[in-house]
Write a structure and sequence with these properties.
The chain has 250 residues and is an alpha+beta fold. The protein contains 8 helices and 6 strands; from the N terminus they run ββαααββααββααα. It has one domain. The protein has a two-stranded antiparallel sheet. A two-stranded antiparallel ribbon has the order 3-4. Strands 5-6 form a two-stranded parallel sheet. A hairpin with a 5-residue loop joins β3 and β4. It starts with a strand and ends in a 6-residue tail after the last helix.
C-alpha cells in the first residue's frame, strides 16, 4: 500500500505548485476477533461444549434441512435452470475438494457462477487478487457469469452444500471449509480444524468485515473456543440480514 504526500517547494525562489509522490505504507495490523465481532464478548471461552452439544447440533442440522425444504428446493431448481440457460455448454455444478474437520479432505458442491475454465485462468489474474494469499478475491472478477453475479450476491450458489450437511461433512454453523490443505497454515491456525466446517460462521456476520486471512483465522479460532448452541443460533439469525444486505457472500 502507499499514500500520496506533497513535496513542499523551497521557501527561497519562485513559488511552485507542490508535486505528489507515492510513499509506501504498512498495511494495518490484523484485528482481534472481538474487534471484528464485539457481541462475541457475551460468550465466554470454554474448554469444550457440553456433552449434549454434538447430538443436539446434528439433530438441528437435519431438522432445519427438512423443515426448510419447501423454501430451498424450488430456489435450487430455479437457480440451476438459470445457470444452464445462461451457459448451455457448461456444467450446472462446480465441485471442489476442501479441507474440513481434522484436516480431512471433502468434496464440496456449489452452483457454477464462473466460466467453465475459471480455475485455469486463476494464475493469469493473480495480480488482481485483493486479499492475502491463500484467499483469492477480485471485486469485478471477469470470470463470473451474469447469472453467477446474482447467485453470489444472494448466496444461492451455496444451496447444493445442503447435501454436505445431510452427509455430515458440514454443519449449519462452523468455520468455512478451505480449499487449501493444512500444510499451508501456521501451527496456531490448525485449531480451526478441531470443529466441523459449516455453511455459515463468524466470517459471514462480522459487522466490520474480516478482510485478511489472519482475521478470518482468528474468527474461526474464537468460534471454536466459545461454541455453544446459543452462539450457533445467534450466528444463524444474523446470517439472514447479512445475506440480504449482501455482506454474507464470500
Amino acid at each position: 500500500m502507499s499514500e500520496l504526500v506533497a513535496d513542499t517547494p523551497s521557501s527561497e525562489g519562485p513559488v511552485a505548485t507542490p508535486t505528489l509522490r507515492a510513499v509506501p505504507t504498512e498495511p494495518p495490523p490484523p484485528r482481534s476477533a472481538l474487534e471484528l465481532v464485539p457481541w462475541l464478548a457475551r460468550y465466554p471461552r470454554r474448554p469444550r461444549p457440553g456433552r449434549a452439544y454434538r447430538p443436539v447440533k446434528r439433530f438441528v442440522d437435519l431438522a432445519f434441512v427438512g423443515l426448510t425444504a419447501p423454501v430451498w428446493a424450488p430456489l435450487y431448481a430455479a437457480s440451476a435452470a438459470a445457470v444452464k440457460l445462461d451457459s448451455p455448454g457448461g456444467p450446472v455444478h462446480f465441485s471442489q475438494r476442501r479441507t474440513g474437520t481434522d484436516g480431512r479432505r471433502i468434496r464440496v458442491h456449489k452452483l457454477r457462477t464462473m466460466v467453465p475454465d475459471a480455475e485455469e485462468r486463476k494464475a493469469e489474474l493473480a495480480h488482481l487478487n485483493e486479499r492475502e494469499w491463500p484467499d483469492f478475491k477480485i471485486t469485478d472478477d471477469p470470470r463470473v457469469t451474469r447469472v453467477g453475479r446474482v447467485l453470489r450476491a444472494t448466496s444461492l450458489d451455496e444451496i447444493p452444500q445442503i447435501r454436505n450437511v445431510v452427509k455430515g461433512d458440514l454443519t449449519l454453523v462452523g468455520p468455512r471449509p478451505w480449499s487449501k490443505t493444512p500444510d499451508h497454515h501456521d501451527r496456531w491456525h490448525l485449531e480451526r480444524y478441531a470443529v466441523r466446517a459449516g455453511l455459515t460462521g463468524l466470517w459471514q456476520v462480522a459487522a466490520r468485515g474480516a478482510d485478511s486471512f489472519t482475521e478470518r483465522i482468528r474468527l474461526d479460532v474464537a468460534y471454536k473456543q466459545r461454541r455453544c448452541l446459543r452462539l450457533d443460533l445467534e450466528i444463524l439469525l444474523r446470517t439472514v440480514p447479512a445475506v440480504l444486505l449482501r455482506r454474507g457472500a464470500v
